[in-house]
Amino acid sequence: MKFLFVCHRWGGDLVGGAEIHHRRLVRDLMDLGHEVEVWTTTGREIEPVAHWAVQWHEGYARGEAVEDGVRVRRWPLKPVRRELLGLGAKWLQRRMEESFVSLMSAEAQDFVARAKASLEPCLLSGWHLPELENGRAVRWTGRRSSLVLPALRDRRVELTVSGFAPKRTRLIAHTGAGKRVASGPLKGWFTARLALEPWQPLVELETTRCFRPLKDHRTLGVRVTEVCWRLEVGPEERLDLWDDMRALGRRHFREWSAVLWRHGQDCPERAGRVFDWLRGPRCPGLARALRNPPADCDAVIAGNLPWSILPMVARNLPREAKLLAMPLWHVEDDYYYWPQYAEALRRADLILANTQFSAREFFGRFLPGNPAAFVGPGVPEPPRETPAGLEAAAWKEAHGIGRGEFLVLSVSRKSPEKRYEVIGDAVAMLRVKGKAARFALVGPDADGRPVDDGVRLLGRLDDAELDAAYRVCDAFALMSDSESFGMVLAEAMMR
């Protein structure tokens, strides 16, 4: 068979789970005797501009080439000014703040009412991404931010919120049935105590005065450093600010994924188009070429989300052409639930799921009319024997790590969603207690943030060096909050 493989970028030097998955799938198909041609863009580097918005940078020549035995054809990117991306991100953030509060609140209330007996405290909608401060998570609220407390019907509870208010404001807690409790005026560092009599565990915090910084796309309320609650009888308990909607997805997957799916399908179509434009890649030449795929092509494989490639392929590919969609869906991330993504998957003749769980429990439930097949990312079997000459102490010393130090290894981009700081903090605690330990991170430095003395950044390693790193480390850790599979865990376990 002949396959046309369409993806957002392609290159043997690219580091990333999706890119590695793409290359391995193409290589496996070719090893089975199939012919595969890759269509992609000239994009190489992806630079974050704002939440959701990225600036693409070209790094490959346009036209046709044969790379490692694979025929690759690339089209140039359409450049977009950073200022326009920033304005688009601001517009989308405001629209989503409005729709997320208005739609999610109703969906969330229904979910909480049905599942309250088994719910654990966590943040819900309206909170911005966590930031790290002195080793602890802090979060900005939006105009309206909700959280889940234990089921407290007929019981009083004191909710304590501590943080920083850059502008004079008040916090108003809404607990359903028209009940609300307001704090006194807040300005600067504050601790607000709210006595609640909730009829359900869902509590919504309203900030009466918000602001939008000039160089920030978000609507910001107050910067929360701690949330605690105390029942009439019992000790004060603290809510973990890392625990947000993803925690609900992990603990109540079937119910919460249904909430996200229904909310996503109700999102405005215009907002979805803006999201695709912000993410890119913006490649009109590739879109035009897809309208006339090779006549001898048996099927087109397209992936992955949350980039614009899969919706682009679904819109432009002739209806008679067979489409195999490879979304690499993150079931816990709300920004994967856009309606244009669901529409693209409905167009597909087959969905390639990277886990059996996703094929059965996600695509099988929400897209029952579209068959889903399990096609795992594939982890090459490593050499059975340790490479000759590899000696752990010498390898550590060659990479700036003490010969006798306990080495904790992680493999990922150095970016906030990978939560590498959590591993660094754990290793720092070991060092404070007198343990000779070091944290080594393999992968590109995406955020450019400084690290402390206990962290060694190894950058990108070739396959042989990465294999050696897996073998000599004393422990492997991955704390990422954004994975569709996590191939590096499987790679580490095989050593």
Kindly provide the radius of gyration, computed on alpha-carbon positions and rounded to a whole number of angstroms: 24 Å
Supply the helix-strand structural class. alpha/beta
Percent of residues in beta strands? 25-35%
Q: Quickly count the helices.
A: 13
Residue ranges: pLDDT <50 for 5 or more in a row? none
The total beta strand count reads: 25
- What is the average of the pLDDT values? 85
Distance between the termini: 35 Å
The side-by-side strand order for the widest beta sheet comes to: 5-6-2-1-18-19-20-21
Summarize the main sheet: 8 strands, mixed
Shape: globular
Q: What is the helix content?
A: 25-40%
Give a short overview.
The chain is α/β, with parallel strands linked by helices and 495 residues long. The protein is 31% helix and 27% strand.
Notes on the structure:
- Helices cover 31% and strands 27% of the residues.
- With 495 residues, the protein is an alpha/beta fold.
- The strands form 5 sheets. An 8-stranded mixed β-sheet has the order 5-6-2-1-18-19-20-21, sandwiched between helices. Strands 8, 9, 11, 14, 16 and 17 form a 6-stranded antiparallel β-sheet that branches. A 5-stranded antiparallel β-sheet has the order 7-10-15-12-13, covered by helices on one side.
- Helix 10 (392-398) crosses helix 12 (463-472).
- The longest helix is centred in the N-terminal third of the chain and has 34 residues, at 82-115.
